[in-house]
Amino acid sequence: MHCTLPTTRLPFITLPSRLPLYRSTHRLPLPGPPPTPAAPPSMSRTPSKRTAAELVATSRHNAVDEATDQSTLAQPLERLPKRGATVDVQVSSLAYGTGLGVARLPSSAGESLVLFVRRAIPGERVRVRVVSRRRNFAEAVVVERLEPSSPFAVAPRCRHFLEGCGGCTFQNLLYAKQLEEKESQVRAIYQGLFQRLSAGDARAATAAALEQVRFEPIVGATELSEVYGYRNKMEFTFGPRRWIPANTVREESPSDHGDHQPEAPAPTDFALGLHAPRRYDKVLAIEDCALQGDVANEILRFVERRCRQRVACLPPYDNAAHTGFLRNLVIRSAVNAAGERELMVNVVTSPPDGPHEDEALRQLADEVWEAFAESGRGLVCVLQNITTTKSGVAVGEREVRLKGSRSALEQALRPLRWVAPAYLRNMPPERLQQHTVLYRISANSFFQPNPVQSEKLLARILEATGLLETASSNRQTFVVDLFCGTGSISLCVAAFAARVLGLELSESAVADARANAERNRIVNAEFAVANLDHETLWKAVQTASISQAVDVLVVDPPRAGMNPRQVRAIVEAPAAVRPRRIVYVSCNPATQVRDLEMMLAGDSPYRLRSVAPVDQFPHTPHMEAVAMLEIRDDKGAGNASA
Ligand SMILES: C[S@@+](CC[C@H](N)C(=O)[O-])C[C@H]1O[C@@H](n2cnc3c(N)ncnc32)[C@H](O)[C@@H]1O
Asked: Which Pfam families match (predicted)?
């Protein structure tokens, strides 16, 4: 069956190209000096002078917190307002992990009563309605935003944010303030660790050691082009119903309880976009996502238009009835070694019901190819990934290349350009220039979604390994990279070490890591599949390394962190292999600190030396942190060559 296409054009919105990064729009009349937005992070950083001991002493109380006390709740409360109650509050900060606004209410019992407010930003006064309540915290939705607005409020770049798109959490918050909030969240988490470690007796040595910890300023995006359009992969969902929010600029309505989202009764039979927050059955049609690049957005609109017009031949998948064909549109992008943009279009589908679906998809692929490859827009391939699962995961069991001569993109990373000059003093200039790592990115392989911020994260990791300072003399060093994934860290440090061993559970990730090593002609990095539990961890290292001592151990576990036995296995490494340094990379500082507490407690052979937070995902609550531990002088490492 053939589908003929009308050629009508759809209107799309034009967005302002320049938005304030570090400028606040309004000022709140706050008691005392107004809060100062964080200075834009510079590319060449000087390490912060702030030590862990200073952090312990620093209170998080700031000018915005003071403003909380001036809220309309003049009388201290005995308990939090009931579900359904309306109250005016001032939001003082953002909650770790969720990005919800935090309003602290005065309490007669002296304990802190906390309201978490959805979609509210620091410095904002809001009328809220409580939607759920626990003993000392409650969750609320905004009924009305009160004047004056927050000094940190900025115009969100995309209208879908105002419609309730779940892709971004706080696009309406000044980026400098986002960074300040994330930095203070990491600091508060570490503050707790330092307080716990320095409490009690026999801890004088620990307290003295904390004096030495360097807490680095958060590394954020430095250009507007890095704050928006930074994602190299977006997964859009096809659906048979279009979620139409009740208001274009939507606040939660009084009938909004818990997860229920009111909507206008005007669904169409086709949608391509992102899920509404916490609703996997609702697809908000997206014409332009501010987190991806311009050409990727053009592809999104092009595919949406062509698929909507052929809906009879290419029915969208209904994840309730499990019928339909089109499931996801995944658009990936990369910048290759020559600095050219490369793009991949991957359509995830169910198995076809008949030949007409395959034929219609091929027709679509031809059109996408003509528009974005033949005209020199950088499209490298159009792929189809076929899945039979009922889950919403955009991964196929079988891949078909519909267009293009290869099925993967090439991404070049140059992390040394983000390393602080102090670390590069001994680096021969030619090595500085040459250090480029190429990564092959196929449709189903993992790659960090923000390449520029990934380079900065890799730069912090390189700094933490200590390999750069002695670049010309440390050719004997052995680095072990646990939970190495596709090897991005291993491949990056290989140029500065004698040998690198990456260990990882996923066979396909190890295959990618090996392929990438070959592609980069890196001969001193090996990768092995290993399930890193407490019993196998060092066995895997020793088997592969023929008992060579480890100089630097890098660990980058999943978000949940490590289990206690894995942590203990690392700290209690056999003396022959005991690493001199441990670099703990994490996308969840809360679990990182939990693990570090175990690593540093009591008579630990290690002490914490530095913590470096990195913002990889502007407008979302996520952040990374790189912690570096060093062996104590009296504990000795397996090898003293580092
Ligand atoms: C945060 S990712 C690491 C990403 C990696 N550093 C990279 O840049 O590609 C965590 C990795 O831990 C791996 N993993 C989870 N549990 C594991 C286990 N028990 N043993 C080995 N690897 C495991 C996952 O497969 C995943 O690749």
From this structure: TRAM, tRNA_U5-meth_tr
556 Cα: distance to centroid of ligand 1 (angstroms): 7
- Ligand 1 pocket (Cβ < 6 Å) reads 446, 483-486, 488-489, 504-506, 509, 530-532, 556-558
At residue 166, the pLDDT reads 81
Q: Which residue has the higher pLDDT, 316 or 197?
A: 316
pLDDT greater than 80 at residue 463: yes
Distance from Cα 42 to the centre of ligand 1, integer Å: 31
Pocket probe for ligand 1: among 442, 460, 489, 504, the residue whose CB has the most ligand atoms within 8 Å is 504
Residue 448, marked binder: yes
Q: Which atom of ligand 1 is nearest to the CA of 513?
A: 9
Mean pLDDT score, 196-224? 76
Is residue 488's pLDDT more than 90?
Answer: yes
Q: Indicate where the chain has its CATH 3.40.50.150 domain(s).
A: 445-605
Q: Is 381 known to be catalytic? A: no
Looking at the CA of residue 554, tell me the nearest atom of ligand 1.
6
CATH number given to 228-406 = 2.40.50.1070
What CATH code would you report for 445-605? 3.40.50.150
Amino acid identity at 342:
E
Residues 6+ apart with CB under 8 A from 229: 290, 291, 292, 293, 294
